[in-house]
Amino acid sequence: MSILTDPDTAVETPQHRLARAKEASRSIARLTSGEKERALEAIARTIEENASRIISANATDIARGRENGIGEALIDRLSLDEKRVAALASAVRDVAALPDPIGQVLGGHRMPNGVALEQVRVPFGVVGAIYEARPNVTVDIAALALRAGNAVVLRGGSAALDSNTVLVELMRSALKGAGVDPEAVQSVDDFGRDGAKAMMHGRGFIDVLVPRGSAALIETVVTESTVPVIETGAGVVHIVLDESAPAEWARDIVVNAKVQRPSVCNAVETVLVLREAAPTLVPVVVGALQDQGVSVHGDDTVAGLVSDVIPATEEDWSTEYLSLDVSMKVVDTLDDALAHIRRYSTGHTESIITTDSRNAERFLAEVDSAVVMANASTRFTDGAEFGFGAEVGISTQKLHTRGPMGVSELTSTKWLARGTGQTRG
Amino acid sequence: MSILTDPDTAVETPQHRLARAKEASRSIARLTSGEKERALEAIARTIEENASRIISANATDIARGRENGIGEALIDRLSLDEKRVAALASAVRDVAALPDPIGQVLGGHRMPNGVALEQVRVPFGVVGAIYEARPNVTVDIAALALRAGNAVVLRGGSAALDSNTVLVELMRSALKGAGVDPEAVQSVDDFGRDGAKAMMHGRGFIDVLVPRGSAALIETVVTESTVPVIETGAGVVHIVLDESAPAEWARDIVVNAKVQRPSVCNAVETVLVLREAAPTLVPVVVGALQDQGVSVHGDDTVAGLVSDVIPATEEDWSTEYLSLDVSMKVVDTLDDALAHIRRYSTGHTESIITTDSRNAERFLAEVDSAVVMANASTRFTDGAEFGFGAEVGISTQKLHTRGPMGVSELTSTKWLARGTGQTRG
């Protein structure tokens, strides 16, 4: 493209990378399923063969992180060892094994005048992702985008700069080796904030932009972008326990949803207990949570039933703790529980524990969240658990897709019309 | 909602209307298909019974328009007579007759642990529309939104203020008569620009916002909104004529695509002719266009083949004339035609006229537009022609939906998960 060779613009800008991704997206869109599988296999193999280089770059990130005092939880999310590098490669192979959505015919019919209409699945073109910390996201999103025939522009967190730089370089060299245009994978990490800015305003170059990370990051991307965005993530997740909830299910599901991995968006933050069930269930559930080191922020009723409860404030009901904290409230009726969820939920995931099918079906029908469950842990809201291989993120908006986003969610559609000279009367 | 009765906020704001639409969306989402059909029939009947009131309000708009010198084309688009009012009601009945998309199960499977997953179609919640001039859009969009179980917030053009005010009032009173919450239909027209601003920034209240109108209006909504937007409309539409194109098809389709209704987005703006076909096709097609009063803006080759051609400038190739003007260019190869389209198309609709199946299939595969045609008039890109009853607009973005938007395009999905106590390992 002339923009890239024009001597007046010889200094490379983030826009050049966007333009190269756009240009590359044309050839990526036309790859066969087999060609895409081979390209992804080349990426997996290259990652495995360069494990030590990746780990060494990651060590630089870790050292810088410790200098900056970023805290052990973040250090852990950031760290790559041999096992985690092997998991990166394995995720790419999982994605390669997924069915190719491109070319799928979604429907069609003949118009009364004989024109044959067909709606087919096509790649988006260029997928952008702005994300934080974990370097596996770099590989996951690139693999998913490529599987769906897209080019990808990545902007990772500065904490993982060295790891991401090596991963992108390896993916590009793997593509080249597989005869695929390496410009299909771009990073704008080296441009800092300007890179993110160029993506958010890259109309005509970025077909969809996915922010993945903190609530603040997502808010910035959603409010600043002029390109279409899929909002992901924040999860003030609720579990409701009704009178018919078996104590074992209530205990096991609440503990699992809070403790198994407290730092992620599908972890439960608020438990609502129907008043009639409170005397039986609150002691069992709170006891099990406290045994696991969870701090319970409870209302007065909860505090009257068990000890060591931190008094819940209004702020607790809208807090995504992402830690070993949970809020708990006793409500009079299912209506009250639904009203509480309507008011405080971020529309990510809610679950009810009940054996009363009327309550279960009402909850499933009326709760307006991406994933609504009965008798299952909210931790199941996850691309891998849903069978999508990996995930780009979890959409909490209603446009385009809702819930875990896999390969199919990185596609668009187009209409084909085949006529024999028809005109409109 | 307390916001509406709080004495401190007794002055009504656009936000109050958004909040009332949001509140109403809950009951609208739960209406059965039959209840929605009866509500729409009540709207159709109320419109018919109040035709004279609508026409009289419209006369005020027309008079104001003439005073402001808005031009006869716009006056025509704005005008409602008995026939057009009858057409409004009839469009509502067409929408009522469409199948209800809500509750449709789109797919599902059991997770290995036995949790049953199901993806179902649900309403968006609150659909917002910002549009111009034609008052029929007020009724079309409200009907489509209601059919899909949504509440709707409307912001029409100031030119149609009186007509729109009466239409919204009639729809609300029809809903009330049918036992449906009238707050499901809101207008913020009386707030002027503040109404549009509130919608564009109505996060948590507006689930999707559709701009429909001029390129400037769409640009403003896309760049200013923090709520999810579906970009519609602008159409620099191309028709390609190759060596195998039958002269009759070429002539009839180009003339139809340009002349049948030049002011709309699916009208052709640029005709690309393969060099080998130019000597035969250019005179036939240009002659037929000029017979219909069309001004042809042609390149040198076109000008050498026929008379009365206006020399085309670079600007012509990216101009959406929306008038009896068309640009025409001779290109050496299909590759050149595809490159021209890539550069200048707005991704709305393109058509190739050919009997060579290789060219047709290549064009259908490689052109990246919402609707890609072979041997049919671009005027067919239309919700009614596609069998959608009416249309909200034509999406030219890739997120969520592409091409004409009908009832199904005003829905989202959610995942339901039914378990028996499962936790994540």
TrEMBL record, chains A, B:
Q: So, what pathway does this thing act in? A: Amino-acid biosynthesis; L-proline biosynthesis; L-glutamate 5-semialdehyde from L-glutamate: step 2/2
Checking SUPFAM superfamilies in the record gives:
ALDH-like (SSF53720)
Highest taxon, organism lineage: Bacteria
Q: Where is this region: Disordered?
A: 1-24
Every copy of the Aldehyde dehydrogenase domain together lies at: 15-291
Q: Where in the cell is it found?
A: Cytoplasm
Q: Indicate yes or no for the key word Transmembrane helix.
A: no
Q: What is its EC number?
A: 1.2.1.41
Q: Which reaction does it catalyse?
A: L-glutamate 5-semialdehyde + phosphate + NADP(+) = L-glutamyl 5-phosphate + NADPH + H(+)
Spell out the family assignment given in the record's similarity comment.
Belongs to the gamma-glutamyl phosphate reductase family.
Q: What is this protein called?
A: Gamma-glutamyl phosphate reductase
Lineage, top ranks:
Bacteria, Bacillati, Actinomycetota, Actinomycetes, Micrococcales
Q: Which gene encodes it?
A: proA
